[in-house]
Amino acid sequence: MQNLLDVILPVFLVIGFGYMAVWRKLFPISGIDGVMKFTQNFAIPCLLFQAIAKLDLGSDFDPALLVSFYAGAAICFALGLFGARLLLRRPWEDCVAIGFCCLFSNSVLLGLPISERAYGPDALTGNFAIIALHSPFCYGLGITVMEVVRNRGQSTVKLAGAVGRAMFSNALVLAILGGFAYNLTGQPIPGVVDDALSLIARAALPAALFALGGVLIQYRPEGDKIAIAMVCIIALLVHPALVWCFGTALSLPQDGFRSGVLTAAMAPGFNAYIFANMYGKSRRVAASSVLIATGASLLTVWLWLEILA
Fold it and tell me: What confidence tens digit (pLDDT) does each residue in 270-308 have?
């Protein structure tokens, strides 16, 4: 119960504050769109660039952690994709979008603040290692499969071009790549620049949580109940259970184990809806899954925190 009160509720109260502010018309939808653009295109990229530029690439990137998390994520993508096809008889394009909902955990907006409150800022190394590969891996997998499905018979060159354009127009991916590139120079970030990045980065998580609440009110859960339930079960229960099994088998150290399982336990990120909207496929399933799974994760994350204690 203490984890629920001390760790999870403050995060969801900020989300709820954003939800209530928009619902009661105290904050305009257009303002929420602006806050979301600020966080996704500027504040969170600054946070990721700064964190990855400072990582010790030799010790912080534990292969066991990355294999545990991303093997679980890939299996969940396949479960969502083939579940939608075999059980629900959805078109292949819809199946890919539904699979992406099962793949893309909300590693930044929910994973970082909940992990920080649970285990402290010094325990976020594993989170940042996962986040460093999260957008490239998930978008790379999702976009590649979607483009293969959509462009059956197209040349490999055209397919690679479509994947590349989608990947390198994403601000989070560019920030991650920039952080890696700067890290490899071996130079510390100049003090003035580091302080400026810190100022922006400190606004990233609270502003993003507030905006997430405002965004969620725009979508109403309706229809597609089986597909939405399948996404919630896979994202909130199956993915962290898989990471638990893989992490145990690979003797993952405690900090990395906690980071992996807890990040996997997060609800689908808003990027799941962005992906569905980008292709115009399964948008209602994606939006409703983000909304319902985010609410349900209040209890499921508490469960995983109790198990990890």
Answer: 778 778 877 888 888 887 888 889 889 888 998 999 899
Query: What value, to the nearest 5°, has the Cα angle with vertex 255 and ends 249 and 258?
Result: 70
Quick one: DSSP state of residue 267? P
Token pair 């292969």: residue: 63
Q: 76, 57, 49: which is closest to 237 by C-alpha?
A: 76
**Rounded to whole angstroms, how far apart are CA atoms 297 and 260?**
16
The residues near 102 (Cβ < 8 Å, ≥ 6 apart) are 76, 77, 79, 80, 230, 231, 234, 235, 239, 268
Does residue 211 contact residue 36 with C-beta atoms inside 8 Å?
yes
Q: Tell me the per-residue pLDDT of 170-208, one tens digit each, with 9 for 90 and over.
A: 787 788 889 989 988 989 999 999 999 999 988 887 888
117 within 8 A of 10, measured Cβ to Cβ: yes
What is the residue type of 250?
A: L
| 3-class SS of residue 105 | strand
Identify the three-state secondary structure at position 121: helix
- Yes or no: say if 202 and 269 are a contact pair by the CB < 8 Å rule: no
DSSP state of 281: S
- In the chain, the amino acid numbered 77 is F
Identify the DSSP state of 27.
S
**Is residue 113 packed enough to be buried (19+ CB in 10 Å), middle (13-18) or exposed (0-12)?**
buried
Question: Shortest CA distance to 271 belongs to which of 62, 105, 32, 28?
Answer: 105
Q: Indicate the pTM of the whole model.
A: 0.79
